[in-house]
Design brief:
alpha/beta, globular
Length: 204
């Protein structure tokens, strides 16, 4: 079964919307390596329409320009790109196609196909739905030391908690934290009485 990994830029107050307006001052070689490792090892990239439009509006030109990021741009161009959208789309970026049918059903089928890793970058609504359906294997959060204070948060209001298990953590020189989570089982019920045995004890 193929592994599905999502990566998101996120602020301390949970904002994931429009990272192009606040995250670039924190982008360095460490973050570039983290993003490159996640997207560069996938042979399929899954997008929501808005994120796809952003990528398609930038990366083909960067590949053609032949600059220092042309290699990464070519990797993205060569990857299979699948876009989830409720409206019919037309594509000019090579290897792009539209996801057919229900998102959860289609991604379940995609995950069971032979092939390499599947990556997501941004695409908040898709990430939320895959998390809720138990289809996301890893969630990479690049937590910026900044409170944006406006915009869409990663998690919206809901009745059901989303427990996660920390796999790894790394602090970059900029203060950004690279946190990698996997889905976790239910946390169960807990009370203050259960927790208080772990509180610091006063010296006798």
């Amino acid at each position: 079964m193929r592994k599905i990994t999502a990566g998101l830029f996120i602020s301390l107050d949970g904002v994931v919307e429009a990272p192009d307006q606040w995250h670039f001052p924190y982008f360095n070689d460490e973050m570039g390596a983290a993003v490159g490792a996640m997207l560069g090892t996938a042979d399929t990239v899954l997008f929501g329409r808005k994120t796809y439009d952003s990528f398609a509006g930038a990366w083909p030109e960067r590949e053609a320009a032949g600059g220092e990021d042309a290699g990464f741009a070519k990797t993205l161009g060569d990857a299979r790109k699948i876009v989830a959208s409720s409206r019919k789309l037309e594509f000019i970026w090579r290897n792009s196609e539209q996801l057919e049918g229900d998102l959860v059903d289609a991604v379940t089928a995609l995950k069971n196909e032979p092939g390499g890793d599947i990556a997501l970058s941004g695409s908040i609504s898709v990430v939320r739905q895959l998390l809720a359906a138990g289809l996301l294997d890893e969630l990479h959060l690049l937590v910026h030391p900044l409170a944006v204070r406006k915009g869409m948060r990663l998690f919206d209001e809901g009745e059901t908690a989303v427990p996660l298990r920390l796999i790894s953590s790394e602090a970059f020189r900029t203060g950004v934290l690279h946190l990698v989570y996997a889905p976790a089982g239910p946390t169960g019920d807990g009370t203050y009485d259960d927790a208080k045995g772990n509180l610091p004890q006063a010296d006798e």
